[in-house]
Design brief:
Blueprint lengths: L4 H23 L4 H19 L5 H23 L2
Helix pairs in contact: 1-2, 2-3
Length: 80
């Protein structure tokens, strides 16, 4: 379990920032794009970490995080 500590931490951070980004976008916040950029960075880090683990759920998480990072960067670029 100790070797998964960073993975679990990043999973929780990723979930929190994704929720915040979705909330701010739904509110039409002028800071939503800034949060999307941060969200992309955190999702990318999470995907990289999860991708190092061989378990199926980590591999699925890594792929979801990479897709999320890509979409967040697209959203952040849309307002730039």
């Amino acid at each position: 379990m100790k070797m998964m500590a960073r993975c679990i931490q990043l999973d929780m951070e990723c979930a929190a920032i994704c929720y915040a980004a979705a909330q701010l976008m739904s509110l039409g916040s002028e800071k939503a794009m800034d949060i999307c950029r941060l969200c992309a960075d955190i999702c990318e880090a999470c995907g990289k970490e999860c991708g190092q683990h061989k378990t199926e759920h980590c591999q699925e998480c890594a792929e979801a995080c990479r897709r999320c990072a890509e979409e967040c960067r697209r959203m952040a670029g849309a307002a730039a």
